[in-house]
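[stage:ingest] chain + small molecule (flavin-adenine dinucleotide)
[stage:ingest] validated
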Amino acid sequence: MTQPTILWLRRELRLRDNAALLAAVASGRPVVPVFVLDEDTPGAWAPGGASRWWLHDSLASLAADLATRGAPLVLRRGLFADELPQLVAETDAAEIHAGIPTEPWAREAIARLTRTLSVPLHLHRTATLFGGEEIRTQAGGPYGVFTPFSRACRANLTPARPHAVPAQIAAAPAPPSDRLEDWGLLPTRPDWAAGLRENWTPGEDGARRTLAAFTKNAIASYDKTRNFPGRPGTSALSPYLAFGEISAATAWYAASLAGEGRGVEIWQNELLWREFSAHLLWHNPALPEAPLRPEYAAMPWRKDPAGLAAWQRGQTGIPIVDAGMRQLWHTGWMHNRVRMIVASFLVKHLLLPWQDGEKWFWDTLVDADLASNSAQWQWVAGCGADAAPYFRIFNPVLQGWKFDPEGDYVARWVPELAQLPPKERQAPWEAPDMLLRSAGVVLGTTYPHPLVDLAAGRARALAALETVTASKA
Ligand SMILES: Cc1cc2nc3c(=O)[nH]c(=O)nc-3n(C[C@H](O)[C@H](O)[C@H](O)COP(=O)(O)OP(=O)(O)OC[C@H]3O[C@@H](n4cnc5c(N)ncnc54)[C@H](O)[C@@H]3O)c2cc1C
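[stage:predict] done
[stage:export] tokens:
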């Protein structure tokens, strides 16, 4: 009998435009599709609660898609280093095809595995448009600034065109598989995932429908609507991209087919921000933990567990911040503009370490992605590559007035302020007593007083920055 090939799926949970699947099928061998839940390799960033919820439904959807093609998905739990050799022995596989890992811990684990496996492990680019080594500066090094990076992407390379699903996947006899239900990926008591279920349909079909709706209805005006969290102006494709339920090339080409306007150009630029984050992580494996600008290690961060908890729960008394944090808790997602506002508030007005915010996002975002999350937190905290300077401090009230001018977003997520006029809704502590009374707002009772005076918080952050500047001098 022909020896099978193992198709090891990790973060490319799709059949369309999947280079690892195509190569496995092209080998002419029967295919054993496998997913290994490895939460134990040292240094692994185990998926957070929201990611585990997503992963459950995503694997269920993938397994169903594979089953219709006669190739059952095999589930195993354990270290990559143990499970893959075990599967090779059980199936007598001749080789393994998989996606190139992007997370530093997985890169290390897979490099070690390659040295010990008895069969070849072929790695294919599945997560991004470009490989980690493909885009180089003229001097041959990695990029640290987005604009030249994106120019190089656009000028030098044409992303590979997406491929269709192979017409047939010849399956091999399947080795024993775990049962997905036994992995405990879904929350039980309390079941906090109702809002996630209401808002998302994980899996390849959900991804395709989301992309199709966005390119049909919203991409043309993306340049004008993308900054307004109260309107449905962005694609909400991020969790599908993060889990590889749709390829970046499929998204890129669907946008190109939608037209040539400014909306398309700016949206594709966002896909390049995703590429840039992956590029930064590829070349800076410590990105999730340590500031890229080393002098920021000297930042005198505060310790304030109560302040951190208020931020996490959307109880800071700053309406747009609380709206964002409650949207995140309820839906597992937050609008990009508001991510920037809440992150800036945490690291500047509260002077709490960006890693605390990064970890909370990691646990609560359905689109949690190691590269984008850590690169963006470093960007906001001013310590990353091409970062927003730390001294530029968002005023959350002005941000609210500008990007939520009718106050719809705050009213949706902070309903206790919905009866205030739009202007006061962003800063209830400035509203006259009479107005507060008629809107049913009692500060300190129905809605918190601000956790920090915004001017004082700003001054404290700037003073802290002096320490960093002094340590560099
Ligand atoms: C502090 C902070 C943390 C973040 N953490 C994550 C994360 O863990 N995972 C994640 O996918 N994005 C993260 N982002 C980036 C961005 O907020 C989300 O990608 C975006 O809000 C997703 O919504 P969308 O799919 O509607 O985006 P769209 O506006 O429709 O953009 C299309 C796609 O481009 C990519 N993209 C857009 N903006 C960015 C960006 N600034 N950086 C990198 N990629 C981008 C995403 O894949 C997104 O789906 C973070 C941003 C901030 C400020």
